[in-house]
Amino acid sequence: MTGPHPPMPAGTDPPPAVDRYDVDGSGGQGWQVGTGNQQVNNYYGGPPAAANAVEWPVVVGRPPRQADAFQVRPGLRDRIRAGLASSGTTVLTQVVAGDGGTGKTQLAAAAFRAALTDRRAVEVAVWVTAASRAAVISAYAEAHAATHPAAGGGDDQEQADRFLSWLAGTGRRWLVVLDDLADPADLAGLWPDGPAGRVLVTTRRRDAAVPGQAAVIDVGVFTDAEAGAYLSAKLSGVAGLPAGVLVEAAGLANDVGWLPLALAHATAVIINDGITCAAYRRLLADRTRPLAELFPATPGQAGDEYAHTVAGTWSLARQRAQALDPAGLAGPMLDLISVMDPNGIPEAVLISDPARAYLHARAAASTPPPDESGPAGGAVEVTVEVTVEAARRAVRTG
Ligand SMILES: Nc1ncnc2c1ncn2[C@@H]1O[C@H](COP(=O)(O)OP(=O)(O)O)[C@@H](O)[C@H]1O
Ligand SMILES: [Mg+2]
Predict the structure, then answer these.
(1) Residue 201 to residues 46, 130, 143, 277, 321: CA-CA distances in angstroms?
(2) CA-based, 20 to 30 A from 44: which of 1, 181, 296, 297?
(3) Which residue has its alpha carbon closest to ligand 1 atom 4?
């Protein structure tokens, strides 16, 4: 889904050239609603470079925006930094397999941005969502075109091969991030390597063995202190929240297993509903119990605990989004978004005729999915067409 990105002008804030929605789609489950987040469209625009001239650094692809109330996690940050300072591939994995949401992508994105601003900044930075072999090949092809504008055509595979050969020999410092690698076997013949390069991989697979692997860094959940700092940063001073909003914040962190993604879901609902952490804990308990009965955990199977947690926090957040104006459109919009690029989708796609026809058909259907039948998100009669403006507002990023 990513288009070619012209080089980012050094030392300046790139002007947002095109509206793109930043989508928090971790594990297909992450999504923030009504959080009052300030979104940054870090699409690197700017005047087109003279034909065939390359302006360094070249940035291809884009990491997700930095999370609201971002926690630096200095221990992990330093280990990643050290991994990238040595040659070889650094792999970010997580202690617990399952639905993700521990913050691997956020840490990789921070490292990616830092690599572009460091004293010895990289000259080529490529962010790849490595969900499939095809996605990786097309990202490399795009990177080849961006670094070699004068080079002729060829299909994606040819261009990708040429990019890999170039990486192997170039003296320009480069970084390739392969985010959310599903299966290392997908990348046979596609591992970037070269004396001036670094590779950073994030994956949910603990067993991921990748060629040239130097360091594996397990990314677990927030510490107690990080979860507390996160909740406090997100919820303090937000207009409309009751005094004592943070009472039982530690209990809430414990309830959601200190999982960053679940905490993000929780704060979205707390802010939307104008409630306290204590009140949210009761909502979540009511929501999680039936889910746990529906999907009993297999004892000892890592990840199930988080799957339940995220199912509960997610379904509450989705239900609230569904009730927001334009009522009934957020859920179908989320379903649409869930099959697109997790890190950014051009607005034009989401407000296009086919997208709006889909939203209309879904919203007009009489039976809402079971998780939306609660008081806040009942069936909605939609008989009129979904306007561009309604589609735009259904994507609530701020
Ligand atoms: N360091 C952090 N500070 C604040 N929020 C975070 C942090 N890491 C993760 N989050 C929250 O958790 C969500 C999921 O994080 P992400 O990095 O996408 O997880 P993963 O890649 O491990 O699945 C983010 O969108 C954000 O809301
Ligand atoms: Mg991720």
Answers:
(1) 29, 9, 17, 35, 32
(2) 181
(3) 70
Residue whose CA lies nearest to ligand 1 atom number 8 = 103
Ligand 1 atom at shortest distance from the alpha carbon of 73 = 1
β-bridge partners, 328 = none
Give kind and range of the element (H or E) at residue 187.
none
Give the confidence band of 9 by pLDDT, cuts at 50, 70, 90: very low
Specify the residue with its C-alpha closest to ligand 1, atom 12: 261
Q: Are 302 and 351 in contact (CB under 8 A)?
A: no
> Is the separation of the CB atoms in 126 and 139 below 8 Å?
yes
- Helix (H, G, I), strand (E, B), or coil: what is residue 136? helix
CATH class of 58-218: alpha beta
pLDDT at 282 (0 to 100): 96
**β-bridge pairing 197-203 and 89-94:** parallel
Sort strands 174-181 and 345-346 into parallel, antiparallel or unpaired.
unpaired
CA of residue 103 to ligand 1 center, whole Å: 4
Residue 87, CB half-sphere, CA atoms under 13 Å: how many? 8
**Minimum CA distance residue for ligand 1 atom 13:** 261
Kindly tell me if the per-residue pLDDT of 22 is higher than 90: no
Cα–Cα distance between 9 and 367 in angstroms, integer?
50
| Mutational test site, ligand 1, from 37, 106, 127, 223, max ligand atoms within 8 Å of CB | 106
- Pocket probe for ligand 1: among 23, 129, 259, 261, the residue whose CB has the most ligand atoms within 8 Å is 261
The mean pLDDT of the chain is 81
- Nearest-CA residue for ligand 1 atom 25 is 24
| Exposed / middle / buried, residue 393 (Cβ in 10 Å: 0-12, 13-18, 19+) | middle
Q: What is the pLDDT of residues 143-193, one digit of tens each?
A: 999 999 998 788 999 999 999 999 999 999 999 999 998 888 889 999 999
Check if 98 has its Cβ closer than 6 Å to any atom of ligand 1. no
How far is CA 311 from each of CA 98, 308, 348, rounded to the nearest angstrom? 12, 5, 30
Other C-beta atoms lying within 10 Å of the C-beta of residue 226: 18
